[in-house]
Write a structure and sequence with these properties.
By secondary structure, this protein is an alpha/beta fold. It contains 13 helices and 14 strands.
């Protein structure tokens, strides 16, 4: 008769003993002495002593003044939910990467979802975060119309909310001062017209992001005011807002249609709400051979925009960097501060920098790799 094979259990005896001790403390729910642990488990006193001392060293247990041992309530990791604008948008991805790195460095568990530039997806993501019981939600979504419902869903669950770049009711705001970054973009466009076109421009286009609402649209309002501050003679009728949706192809289409309606010698200043939109305007400008008559400034300083600034005589003359690499550390710090019960300002603005071909090398050297 063949001998039966002995089934080996891949167990670690000392680890099993350690878990027995932990389970004993959990079931007793009170401090226990070394002798009590020994009497109940009949594990050698030497092993019990060494295991208990290891638990104390690692912070799982503490000793009372009388020498007994008790379990320590170990604080669990904070869990943040982050819903990014869209994985296909370079600025959104830069913010997401910065946040992931900061969360890992600070010991915060970060759950990341993609809003896909879509209102219904953003609402679904918010509901899933609530169902998972995260401690705090960081929301980066583009549509103003859905923001009250998203904020209500999160607020009803008693979860703190930080809104990135697009304000949400009852949320703490984190992002740029939209009017100010627009104003500085407008000043740059005006200076270009002064130095290159003798202060003349027939048209000023604002490539808007209407679905984001008036707060983000103030980037274009600011740009128009920045241009007027240096070129007050430009007539009001020359200022035109077009909805580029912050997207490349939409912006390329509306700018192409505009340029085709106007003469080749008419000079056009273009302020775009995002660099992605600005790249669409650049695409349209080049396809129609209008580079000498157009100047474009964007927002966000995405890699493609930075590369374009290195191109000689490009119509794309600058971008406002929103310093995406700083978002992560500041958002984590803001979230932890909220959860610890401290009061934070309702609006938390990031630093921004004007980037042109002239100052690009200096700014690149200052950004951590």
């Amino acid at each position: 008769m063949p001998q039966r094979k002995i089934k080996h259990l891949y167990l670690i005896p000392i680890l099993s003993k350690s878990l027995d001790i932990l389970e004993l403390f959990e079931s007793e729910n009170r401090p226990l002495t070394l002798e009590e642990v020994f009497q109940q488990l009949r594990v050698s006193k030497t092993s019990v002593y060494r295991i208990l001392k290891t638990f104390v060293h690692r912070g799982y247990m503490a000793q009372t003044p009388e020498g007994a041992y008790r379990l320590v309530s170990r604080p669990r990791k904070m869990r943040f939910g982050f819903a990014g604008e869209s994985a296909e948008m370079p600025f959104s991805e830069a913010v997401s990467n910065s946040l992931k790195a900061a969360a890992a460095a600070s010991g915060v568990e970060l759950i990341v979802r993609d809003n896909r530039y879509d209102a219904e997806t953003a609402l679904r993501n918010a509901k899933e975060f609530v169902a998972e019981g995260v401690d705090l939600i960081i929301e980066f979504q583009i549509e103003e119309r859905i923001s009250p419902l998203i904020a209500h869903t999160i607020s009803k669950a008693g979860i703190p909310l930080i809104a990135v770049d697009i304000p949400h009711p009852s949320a703490v705001y984190f992002g740029v001062d939209n009017f100010q970054v627009g104003f500085e973009a407008g000043e740059l466009l005006a200076r270009h017209a002064i130095h290159q076109w003798n202060g003349k421009a027939e048209w000023v286009l604002g490539l808007d992001l209407s679905e984001a609402g008036t707060f983000v649209q103030s980037r274009i309002s600011g740009a128009f005011e920045g241009i007027r501050s240096l070129l007050p003679a430009i007539e009001q009728r020359a200022f035109v807002r077009l909805d580029g949706r912050g997207m490349r192809q939409t912006s390329a289409q509306v700018v192409t249609e505009f340029l085709q309606r106007h003469g080749r010698n008419e000079r056009v200043l273009i302020a775009a709400a995002t660099d992605t939109s600005a790249m669409g305007a650049l695409q349209a400008t080049r396809s129609l051979g209008r580079e000498k008559q157009v100047a474009i400034v964007g927002q966000d300083c995405i890699p493609e925009a930075v590369d374009e600034l290195r191109v000689k005589k490009s119509p794309f003359i600058g971008s406002i960097s929103h310093e995406a690499h700083t978002y992560g550390p500041r958002l984590i710090q803001l979230g932890v501060t909220l959860l610890r019960g401290y009061t934070v300002p309702p609006y938390n603005y990031v630093q921004h920098k004007l980037v042109t071909a002239a100052n690009l090398p200096t700014l690149e050297a200052s950004i951590p790799q």
